[in-house]
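cron nightly-structures :: item 1 of 1
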Amino acid sequence: MTLFRRAALVFLCGLGGVASAAAPSQPAVACQPPAAPFAEAQRKFHPGHYVSLGRGYPRSDFSGALVKGVTGVQMRYRWADLEPAEGHYDLSVIARDLEAAKRSGVQLVVLIEDKSFKDELPTPAYLRAKYTLRNRANGYTALRWDPYVNDRLQQLVANLGAEFDCHPHFEGVAFQESSLSLDDKVLDANGYTPEKYRDALISLLRSSAKKLPRSRVFWYMNFLPEKQGYIGEIADAVIGTGVVMGGPDILPDNPALATRVYPFYDKFEGRLRLFNSMQHDSYRHRHNAVGRSGYWSMDDLFVFARDELHVDYVFWEYRTWRQPPDSHDWTDAREVIARYATFGSSRSSDSTK
């Protein structure tokens, strides 16, 4: 690489540009951090419809999941795969996915998995014996409130920022739902307190926003064991930092969400960017209201998220089968996406390209 080319790449990164020609092994050249993290209004902001793809989806080509109106994709990555040994990182799969996103002209959101919902360990081997617990969902959960675990996750994000923050198709990093799926006795036996968890999440989100100074941090919040009100304190603590607050379920007739989670969307409308996601339960969400029956339509679910939850982003699970057979799947979702193809476009004028 010539000195002129090297200087040009550094200059572009200072403007939030991309050094896509730089090798991933040279993050210092590929993505120089700015003097200070970008202000909220200067960060990347490409709102609209995103497709959530599982790890089994072919990673070299997103075209099968892209329709008119799709702004980006969200891909899942196990922490164990990104950090196979302590302090040693393998980000090649993200680099490959980011190039596929670039070719498709869409954004990429990187969802880091430190919690699983099946018999699969999401954490690196060095964290499994002492810092990973079996959960109620038949999977595993990292001890997120533990300072060591929290620091290691922050170090992973720092490496992601050094590698990808400059890339214009890298929208940001997402963290899984705040629900831990652990019984109270298990929490107590492992040193949990709601204050520790609140402070750990604030530290993680603030640190991640600094390590991704041009990009976004997507915080999937829903329930915080033993002190649900701390969700609001965490949200207050990250206003203006580039954090986008949201959750894993668009389920208007779910009583727990309606009373304990959805009010935070009203409270923080206009103060934080917001998102939510259509997951399996959304595709089969039944009406509970008197006089109504059957499933919520995908149109009605989307309008609820847009108008009642005030979201800037909607993440749609790429689900290509119906369960139950008379419920909805991706075929129904893609029709809604195409019908509301300009969703979020009026809000993106201040995005960092």
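cron nightly-structures :: done
The longest strand covers residues 70-78.
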